[in-house]
């Protein structure tokens, strides 16, 4: 694999190296669609919210969470800590719209976020 | 309890300082988007209603023989109907609502010392100051240490204790040792209950309370109690959401109306915010020594006394919680923006009913009060809802003010009171 750095944030829950497929979760429709799919490999949720009410519904399918906003005490972090799910917040330089579901992502202990270079 | 008299201006200054510390050190409220409930928008539509109606609600509490001190003291128990969130939330919502009205254009009857007056409902600075004092007095009598905030100099303090050492010891004695699987189940249940409450309370934590840590005799052991006081939401189906939409409650409800999860933890560090949230580090099954579950029964309107549920039920209760979470989430997710905005507003207004429930109001009284609150809320803010819903966070004057304060572009958040004192 050829990893390239695409952003960074604050590793606010369960810091460590984590790798998994990306699942972009922007908007309620994306959550509902995922709920209707059968459970596959746990994914790294990439989202643009820091609230806990929506993401908590699908957190059982999550290997980890990356949010483009939020801080160490955001509700999304509270929920992630409860579920022992690694979570990076405040990754403002990350563009979720540029990510494809299923792309391999790696979160590093220092908050760096990488994806596997296509091709 | 501290008895030194403190002026309304000083109360406002301290509250503003605490708010700044909360926003800058814990969480910038209103700036964290939620997909479900448009938070700064529904706050802007609901807080002015709360600010206007609080004085009348406290008058009704007083008619039951409870002043702020007695009200706060009465709540000092496991699974009380009103908790830290409500006591601190009164100060929060009363002042935010007042300021939102002061920043809105064309507010009826506004003049120095008068925030709102439409001939039927009104709010003066005297009343806002009274709400702030009520919140402060109630909190001081609710917290075991007699303080209004966990810390004078930081947003986070070392604890949020409401029980005496003896009471905490009695609760801890009900906890039974757990193995790793049992610990995972209990912590999993806590996570599921919190997630469900975030969903149903529009992320406001209005039914959640975590108190402690209470030191225990065994070295390194501490007691923490996580509570959810509403797992049935009986008043939610009455919300008049547009398009004839109503909350539908789950066919298989949570078996109890409320739940406390008693945790005996070892080797953890705990910090507390003013709203009754404890931040526990590190938190995991290896740190949970013993646990039990407590409830005040299945009827949301009747206190059957504190009863023990075996911690071995945690696994099945968690699964049920997850089912309910999915069922309720799919309802909200099917609503449009306007309906989710309204659901947030109506949920926020239930803080008034929770206060009355804690003062002893029964089912029929609460249902009648709910009708009154919904009607009053519609009259006070109904004409402004469309405009508020359409604004971005940056276009909401109060949240712009908060942003300016956090960026140090202004030194104040609240307009000083105009009082006769």
Distance between the termini of chain A: 10 Å
Mean pLDDT of chain A equals: 93
Structural class of chain A, by secondary structure, is alpha/beta
Number of helices of chain A: 2
Helix content of chain A: 10-25%
Structure in words:
- The complex is a heterodimer of chains A (about 120) and B (about 425).
- With about 120 residues, chain A is an alpha/beta fold.
- Chain A has two helices and eight strands.
- The longest helix of chain A is centred in the first third of the chain and has 9 residues, at about 30-35.
- The mean pLDDT of chain A is about 95.
- The two termini of chain B are about 25 Å apart.
- In chain B, the strands form three sheets. In chain B, strands 3, 4, 5, 6, 9 and 10 form a six-stranded antiparallel sheet that branches. Chain B has a two-stranded antiparallel sheet with strand order 1-2.
- Helix content of chain B is about 45%, strand content about 10%.
- Chains A and B meet through helix 1 and helix 2 of A and helix 7 and helix 8 of B.
Keywords for this entry:
heterodimer, A: 119 residues, alpha/beta, B: 421 residues, alpha+beta, six-stranded antiparallel β-sheet, 12 helices
Chain-wise SSE layout:
The complex is a heterodimer of chains A (119) and B (421).
Chain A: E1 3-8, E2 10-13, E3 18-25, H1 28-36, E4 43-47, E5 62-67, H2 75-82, E6 87-89, E7 104-107, E8 112-116
Parallel strand pairs in A: 3-4, 4-5, 5-6
Antiparallel strand pairs in A: 1-8, 2-6, 3-7, 7-8
Chain B: H1 8-25, H2 39-63, H3 68-74, H4 84-103, E1 114-117, E2 122-124, H5 125-142, H6 165-173, E3 176-177, H7 180-200, E4 208-215, E5 221-228, E6 259-266, E7 269-272, E8 278-281, E9 288-295, E10 307-309, H8 314-333, H9 337-358, H10 363-381, H11 385-390, H12 397-406
Antiparallel strand pairs in B: 1-2, 3-9, 4-5, 5-6, 6-9, 7-8, 9-10
Helix pairs in contact in B: 1-5, 2-4, 2-5, 2-9, 2-10, 3-5, 4-5, 7-8, 9-10
């Amino acid at each position: 694999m050829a990893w390239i750095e695409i952003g960074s944030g604050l590793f606010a829950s369960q810091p460590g190296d984590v790798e998994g497929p990306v699942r972009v979760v922007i908007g309620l429709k994306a959550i509902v669609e995922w709920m209707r799919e059968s459970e596959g490999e746990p994914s790294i949720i990439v989202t643009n919210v820091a609230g806990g009410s929506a993401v908590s519904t699908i957190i059982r399918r999550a290997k980890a969470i990356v949010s483009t906003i939020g801080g160490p005490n955001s509700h999304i972090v509270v929920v992630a800590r409860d579920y022992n799910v690694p979570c990076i917040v405040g990754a403002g330089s990350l563009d979720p719209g540029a990510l494809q579901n299923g792309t391999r992502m790696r979160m590093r202990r220092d908050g760096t976020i990488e994806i596997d270079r296509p091709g | 309890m501290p008895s030194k008299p403190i002026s309304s201006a000083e109360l406002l200054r301290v509250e503003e300082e605490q708010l700044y510390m909360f926003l800058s050190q814990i969480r910038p409220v209103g700036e964290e988007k939620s997909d479900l409930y448009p938070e700064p928008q529904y706050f802007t539509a609901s807080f002015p209603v709360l600010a206007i109606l609080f004085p009348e609600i406290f008058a009704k509490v007083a008619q039951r023989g409870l002043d702020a001190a007695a009200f706060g003291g009465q709540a000092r128990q496991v699974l009380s109907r009103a908790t830290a969130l409500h006591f601190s939330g009164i100060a929060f919502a009363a002042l935010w609502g007042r300021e939102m009205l002061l920043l809105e254009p064309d507010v009826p009857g506004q003049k120095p010392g008068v925030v709102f007056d439409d001939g039927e409902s009104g709010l003066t600075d005297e009343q806002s100051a009274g709400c702030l004092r009520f919140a402060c007095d109630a909190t001081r009598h609710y917290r075991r240490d007699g303080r209004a905030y966990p810390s004078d100099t930081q947003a986070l303090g070392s604890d949020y204790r409401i029980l005496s050492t003896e009471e905490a010891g009695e609760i801890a004695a009900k906890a039974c040792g757990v193995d790793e699987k049992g610990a995972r189940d209990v912590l999993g249940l806590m996570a599921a209950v919190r997630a469900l409450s975030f969903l149903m309370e529009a992320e406001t934590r209005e039914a959640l309370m975590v108190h402690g840590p209470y030191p225990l005799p065994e070295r390194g052991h501490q007691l923490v109690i996580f509570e959810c006081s509403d797992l049935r939401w009986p008043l939610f189906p009455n919300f008049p959401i547009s398009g004839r939409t109503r909350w539908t409650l789950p066919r298989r409800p949570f078996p109890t109306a409320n739940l406390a999860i008693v945790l005996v933890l070892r080797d953890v560090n705990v910090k507390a915010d003013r709203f009754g949230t404890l931040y526990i580090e590190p938190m995991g099954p290896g740190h949970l020594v013993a646990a039990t579950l407590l409830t005040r029964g299945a009827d949301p309107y009747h206190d059957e006394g504190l009863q023990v549920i075996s911690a071995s039920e945690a696994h099945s209760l968690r699964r049920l919680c997850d089912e309910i979470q999915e069922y309720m989430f799919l309802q909200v997710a099917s609503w449009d923006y306007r309906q989710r905005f309204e659901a947030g507003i109506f949920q926020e207004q239930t803080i008034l009913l929770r206060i009355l429930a804690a003062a002893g109001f029964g089912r029929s009284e609460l249902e009648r009060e709910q009708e009154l609150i919904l009607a009053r809320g519609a009259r006070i803010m109904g004409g402004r809802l469309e405009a508020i819903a359409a604004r971005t966070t940056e276009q909401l004057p109060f949240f712009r003010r908060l942003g300016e304060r956090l960026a140090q572009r202004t030194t104040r958040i609240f307009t000083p009171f105009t009082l006769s004192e």
